[in-house]
Design brief:
The structure holds 2 protein chains of 2 kinds. Chain A is an alpha/beta fold. Chain A is built from 11 helices and 10 strands. In chain A, strand 1 (38-43), helix 2 (50-64) and strand 2 (70-75) form a beta-alpha-beta unit. Chain A is globular and about 60 Å long. Chain B has a two-stranded antiparallel ribbon. The chains are: A alpha/beta, B mainly alpha.
Chain lengths: 328, 507
């Protein structure tokens, strides 16, 4: 490097940082088989995001209720979560007390080859909360129900522009494809308009440039409360919060859950999953859950793996149906 | 509405809430001053503390941190060329040269007055028209945002001195190119990542600005030792401590503040823009309408060039509360965190918030007046002490700048790759600067590039072609304005050229 000489202080700084980081973040390893006294949460995104909220909320409930003695948090953003996955795999021996938070995108991103690993390279602990997909229109939209939306789509698919706060081929897009597919429409014709955040997609819908918004039920309910939008339907088998399901054959839940390092011994993993299971009955968790409007879904260990495998299968079929390549 | 405002006033003036404003502003100023560290992490970490509070108090605290950070962010931009927050990158264009020429104290004072005026004027707009402005926020579609970003690019002329136009344009293209790195927001194709997972999310704006300005400046200081010690001596013995703004200067500033606060506030109201875009647009606008003699001063310590972005970013910050409170739509990461907090307090932002929860809605807006006064009172007396930083000998100041810049960027992402990337960019920036290329146009291209591409592609998809250019009145209007700005100097140039040619023939 031509500037190596000038860079000298920079280099020593990096070294100092590396030492400080290592000292600060060395993962606690004091997990006994029966009780969990320390958990270190690895958050693949920055402060204030969905993953961050899930990890810190869970940690808060676990420590306040006394189920876990101590919780520490580490934010590691990069590569849409890929950085943290690579990190927990590389340093697996020191990560026996670490839980990494993740959600549906881990399945999608590994299917699409965005990172080389998949959930199989980690130790799935449990899915803890979930959110159904929801379709939302402006309050003054002529579309009154999901059937209206399907009719409009069948009449002219070009005219139904569906907004979403993530890129093409990601969750919001796939949920839309799934719902139209179940209604017998051709998914390749779905016109999905990508925005870089949920809020921007909502602004796009309200500005009238799109017909419909694909989002999570939690966010949709908040917006519907404000009276600007109407929820057409949700991707649940049964009505939730008075919102009708989109129809039979549509069942999608965006989960958030935790993973341990690869090679984590089964006893430790089971103990962690059991601790998370006990958490649901505590008032501390109920306070966190209600505050964030989360929906409890507890899928520990084997059940979680089966769920992930099934979701991967479904997602793969949908992606291929949209003409998007998958690597797995 | 009057009743609501009175409720808000009495809520905002309770001792607890006054304390919240003070704490928020103080914390915000401090966080803002530290290079790179923005308000978002601070606010996210504050949320759990505020759960026990009344919603109005929590929001007042968080809003204080937000605009306090933008207020304080100008300090490090001016003194060490390291932007405190993304919204104050444009402040360094003229603020830093001003400090280098021995007017550090004055530059800080100007920034403080400009921030105060921008924040206060925007708060007046909020009070008068917040509920009505929600409609403005929703009138902008992707096509209009695209046009707005194109208009923003005309600010490049502000960085192109005589004979520098080609260099400035090349740097804009470099910036536009850098903006395409990472996962493409529309079709999920990765571009120029070379298989690296760290580049998937693209390059952070703050990282690039920090490398291009703060780090490269620190390295240049070492490379050009003589000139620096000279200016340091000049700064130390010169008018560093003088904060007085002359009557003539105040007269120049006043109209700039007026224009920039309106523009800044309006841009802030749009959920797809924000304080950073607002500061760049205000800078460009001020350069475009400045008289010819004043134009030459831009980038070299122009009073207008400092006042415009500093006013606009604070006005935009207040403006961003319009979509947040009246629509429940966050325009930035920081406002998204605040929205999450509001919802967890059980307050639903939306068109009816100001009637449903007047004590929250109006108290937050009224606390902004109080907050801006507190910020001014807090910052002005500190300036002589803070400006003394410039008196530090370079062998002390340079490592400090390096340390704080690298720390700041690392503490945002906690990714060591960012440090390596930053050093690499700083090296590139030093080479380019040695060849006489200025970094500002590159930053301009970068900040506008991503939004421009994203919105253009969305508009093309929605309209199935380019028809939005003439079908949407807002797009058409902005495009015509852009064309006028571009053509005016060309016409003038042709006239001058012809004048010169005839003169040459004559001689």
């Amino acid at each position: 490097m031509p500037i190596s000489r000038q860079c000298f202080p920079v280099r020593s700084l990096i070294a100092a940082f590396a030492i400080a980081t290592a000292a600060f973040y060395t993962a606690p390893s004091g997990v006994s088989a029966a009780e969990v006294d320390k958990i270190h949460f690895l958050i693949p995104g920055g402060a204030g995001g969905g993953w961050d909220g899930t990890a810190r909320g869970t940690g808060e409930a676990l420590t306040k209720s006394g189920l876990v003695g101590q919780a520490s948090y580490e934010n590691m953003s990069g590569g849409g979560g890929g950085k943290a996955i690579a990190h927990i795999i590389e340093t697996a021996e020191r990560q026996s007390g670490t839980l990494m938070v993740n959600s549906t995108p881990i399945v999608l991103r590994s299917l699409r080859g965005r990172f080389p690993q998949s959930f199989r390279d980690l130790t799935p602990i449990a899915a803890v909360i979930g959110d159904y997909g929801a379709f939302v229109v402006r309050a003054d939209s002529p579309l009154q129900s999901w059937d209206d939306a399907v009719a409009a789509f069948n009449e002219n698919p070009r005219k139904v522009k569906v907004a979403g706060g993530s890129v093409k081929g990601s969750m919001d897009h796939l949920v839309t494809a799934m719902a139209f597919k179940a209604a017998g429409a051709e998914t390749a014709k779905v016109r999905y308009i990508a925005y870089d955040a949920g809020g921007k997609a909502m602004a796009g819908l309200l500005s009238g440039e799109t017909t419909m918004l694909s989002t999570g039920l939690g966010e949709a309910l908040e917006q519907a409360k404000a009276g600007q939008v109407r929820i057409l339907c949700i991707t649940a088998p049964e009505p939730v919060a008075g919102v009708a399901p989109c129809g039979s054959g549509i069942n999608f839940v965006n989960w958030r859950g935790f993973f341990g390092a690869p090679g984590l011994d089964a006893a430790t993993a089971d103990a962690m999953a059991a601790t998370l299971g006990k958490m649901y009955d505590t008032p501390e968790w109920e306070a966190v859950r209600a505050r964030n409007g989360w929906v409890n879904i507890y899928k520990p260990r084997a059940e979680f793996v089966a769920f992930l495998e099934q979701q991967e299968e479904e997602m793969k079929a949908l992606l291929n149906g949209l003409g998007i390549e998958t690597v797995r | 509405m009057i009743e609501g405002i009175l409720t808000g006033l009495s809520t905002a003036l309770t001792p607890t809430n006054l304390l919240m404003v003070m704490v928020g502003c103080f914390a915000g100023t401090f966080i803002g001053m530290l290079p790179g560290l923005g308000p978002i992490s601070a606010i996210a970490l504050m949320i759990p503390i505020t759960y026990g509070f009344d919603p109005a108090s929590g929001m007042i605290l968080m809003a204080g941190v937000y605009y306090g950070a933008i207020f304080g962010g100008s300090t490090s931009s001016i003194l060490i060329n390291a932007p405190g927050v993304a919204g104050t990158v444009a402040t360094s264009f003229d603020g830093y040269p001003m400090a280098r020429s021995g007017h550090g104290g004055k530059a800080l004072a100007i920034a403080a007055y400009a921030s105060f005026s921008g924040g206060t004027i925007a708060a007046v707009f909020l009070l008068l028209a917040a509920p009505a402005l929600a409609q403005v926020a929703l009138s902008f579609q992707s096509a209009d945002y695209f046009a707005l970003m194109v208009l923003g690019l005309t600010a490049v002329s502000a960085f192109a001195g005589r004979g520098q136009f080609l260099k400035a344009m090349l740097m804009v293209f470099l910036g536009l190119g850098l903006a395409t790195i990472g996962q493409d927001t529309s079709s999920d194709i990765t571009r120029f990542t070379f298989g690296s997972i760290d580049l998937l999310d693209g390059i952070s704006f703050l990282l690039l600005a920090m490398a291009a300005f703060a780090l490269s400046e620190a390295i240049m200081t070492v490379l050009k030792r003589d000139t620096v010690s000279e200016s340091a001596v000049q700064a130390a013995t010169g008018k560093m401590g003088s904060l007085k703004i002359s009557r003539a200067e105040a007269k120049t500033m006043a109209p700039v503040i007026g224009r920039s606060s309106i523009l800044g506030f309006f841009i802030g109201v749009l959920p797809g823009a924000g304080a950073t875009i607002a500061s760049f647009l205000a800078y460009g606008m001020e350069r475009n309408i400045a008289p010819k003699a004043e134009k030459q001063k831009f980038g070299k310590g122009s009073l207008r060039g400092l006042t415009a972005p500093e006013t606009a970013n604070n006005a935009a910050c207040s403006g961003s509360f319009v979509p947040l409170l009246t629509l429940g739509i966050p325009g930035s990461g920081t406002t998204a965190v605040m929205l999450g907090a509001l919802i967890s307090y059980g307050v639903q932002p939306g068109p009816t918030l100001f009637t449903d929860r007047p004590e929250v809605f109006w108290a937050v807006i009224i606390s902004m007046y109080i907050g801006n006064i507190i910020l001014l009172v807090l910052n002005l007396p500190l300036i002589p002490y803070i400006a003394r930083l410039l008196m530090l000998p370079p062998q002390l100041l340079v490592p400090l700048v390096l340390f704080f810049s690298l720390c700041g960027v690392y503490l945002v992402s906690f990714n060591t790759f960012d440090i390596h990337l930053m050093v690499a960019f700083a090296a590139g920036a030093v080479v380019l600067r040695l060849f006489g290329y200025s970094m500002a146009p590159m930053i301009l291209g970068f900040v506008l590039g991503r939004l421009m591409e994203e919105n253009l592609r969305r508009a093309l998809e929605i309209y199935d072609g380019y028809s939005f250019l003439w079908e949407r009145p807002i797009t058409l209007g902005i495009m015509i304005l852009t064309a006028l700005i571009l053509l005016a100097p060309l016409l003038r140039w042709f006239k001058e050229r012809r004048g010169l040619a005839t003169a040459g023939e004559g001689g």
